[in-house]
Structure formats: structure tokens, C-alpha cells
Design goal:
With 144 residues, the chain is of the alpha+beta class. It has a domain of 91 residues. It is 40% helix and 13% strand. The chain has a three-stranded antiparallel beta sheet, with no helix packed on it. Strands 1-2 form a two-stranded antiparallel sheet. Strand 4 and strand 5 form a beta hairpin. Helix 2 packs antiparallel against helix 3. The chain is elongated, with a radius of gyration of 31 Å.
Length: 144
């Protein structure tokens, strides 16, 4: 007996357009999901960090309308103190979802070439760095 008969190896052919990994949506699997979740965590840290930047406004109760004192607290000098974030909530929400969205589009693989935008960028950068002009020496002795 030779080695090939001793080892019974079964080979399976995988058809074209069938992925070998489990994907949530085509071109987006668990490894890409981890990157998007990490980007969302970074966005959440930025979101909560920006919400800590606040401004304090003193409101005189004799001159201000009653609607201006909503959410304010009365201090010991008889003035209302209203603390509001400097950056509005909608801008902070946009900053929250921006890193996750950008990461999703950077790492999602396209079906026509099975490459993400990040992989396309790195391969284009490598192609740009490769030598494109090949200089040949004529009459170097081997042309005859």
C-alpha cells in the first residue's frame, strides 16, 4: 500500500458565489460586525464626552418669562440656574452614529469583487507603489 491509499481524503468542491463563512447580510459577517461595534463604542464615548461640556445660565425670575425657568433650579441668591449642553443633542447623536456608519461602508465586501473599500484602497496603494517601467538593455549579448 502506498500513502495515497492509506489516507482517504474527501475533497469537496464549493460552487461559485457560495461563501464559506456565515454572513449576516451578503459581504458582512461577524468580523465586520466586531469592527462596527467597536466604532459604535468609540462614537458613544465621544457622545457622552461631549455631553459633559455644559454652560450655566442665570435667569432673573422677575424679568424672564415662566417658560424660561422650566428645568432650572433656584439658587440661594433668588436666581434660577439652568444648565444646558453646549453641543445640541442632534449633533451629538450624529457624532454617535457617524463612526459606525463609516466603518460599515469601509468593511462591507462588495459581491462583484469580494473586496471592501478598505481593501480596495490598500491594493490601489500597493499598485501605485509598484514599478511600472521596466528598462531593457538591448544588445546585451543575448538578443543575437
Amino acid at each position: 500500500m502506498n500513502n495515497l491509499e492509506e489516507k482517504q481524503v474527501t475533497k469537496y468542491l464549493i460552487p461559485a458565489n457560495v461563501t464559506t463563512r456565515w454572513e449576516l447580510i451578503p459581504g458582512f459577517g461577524w468580523s465586520e460586525m466586531r469592527l462596527v461595534i467597536a466604532a459604535l463604542i468609540i462614537g458613544a464615548l465621544i457622545f457622552f464626552g461631549l455631553s459633559q461640556i455644559k454652560k450655566t445660565t442665570l435667569i432673573d425670575p422677575t424679568k424672564a418669562p415662566i417658560t424660561a425657568t422650566i428645568g432650572a433650579q433656584l439658587n440661594k441668591d433668588g436666581q434660577y440656574v439652568k444648565v444646558t449642553p453646549v453641543i445640541p443633542a442632534m449633533v451629538r447623536f450624529f457624532i454617535l452614529i457617524l463612526p459606525g456608519t463609516v466603518t460599515f461602508f469601509l468593511v462591507k465586501k462588495e459581491s462583484y469583487n469580494n473586496m471592501s473599500l478598505l481593501q480596495l484602497y490598500t491594493s490601489a496603494k500597493e499598485l501605485k507603489e509598484k514599478q511600472r517601467l521596466y528598462l531593457y538593455k538591448y544588445n546585451s549579448g543575448s538578443e543575437g
